[in-house]
Design goal:
The protein is about 55% helix and about 5% strand. It is an all-alpha fold. It folds into 2 domains: about 1-80, Multidrug-efflux Transporter Regulator, Chain: A, Domain 2 (Orthogonal Bundle); about 80-115. A two-stranded antiparallel ribbon has the order 1-2. A hairpin with a 5-residue loop joins strand 1 (about 35) and strand 2. The radius of gyration is 26 Å and the shape is elongated.
Length: about 150
């Protein structure tokens, strides 16, 4: 692949996952550098520009604000983050926050599993091998749900 290949804004948007409007906005607020332009004024992007766009999209998915991601985007793509201890520490803290969110979402998912398991329309049909068709499950109530989601 030719690393000096030039891409239109439409091609850059497709490759990066950002919309054309978002790319223009990020250039306007100087999160992305101003691109080179053809003689007709059309924007031209290279692989480095697209990699920065992908980085922004990734950081955006982690929940960083545009201002929080600005120092990371301004680094070169091959920078060693340990050379920037304050940025390194901030990203570690952000990762810890994300891990806490994941744990919380797992607890919520577990709660939903419990509710769905106890939904009568989702119960398996009674088989002829059982002498009783009674449901011996623990009744669904707040105490039982909280107890099972903690364990």
């Amino acid at each position: 692949m030719n690393r000096t290949e030039a891409f239109s804004i439409k091609e850059a948007a497709y490759q990066s996952g950002l919309s054309e409007d978002t790319i223009r906005y990020y250039e306007k607020i100087q999160l992305l550098p101003q691109p080179n332009r053809k003689s007709n004024g059309h924007r031209v992007y290279d692989h480095t520009n697209i990699e920065k766009m992908k980085l922004i999209l990734c950081l955006k998915k982690t929940g960083l604000s545009l201002e929080e991601m600005r120092p990371y985007v301004q680094l070169s793509l091959d920078s060693d983050l340990t050379d920037y201890p304050e940025l390194y520490h901030m990203l570690q803290q952000h990762q810890h926050t994300i891990q806490e969110h994941i744990q919380s979402l797992q607890q919520i998912s577990h709660f939903i599993d419990i509710v769905l398991e106890r939904t009568p329309s989702l119960r398996p049909p009674a088989t002829s091998c059982t002498s009783e068709s009674q449901d011996h499950r623990v009744p669904l109530n707040r105490h039982n749900l909280l107890k099972s989601s903690v364990s």
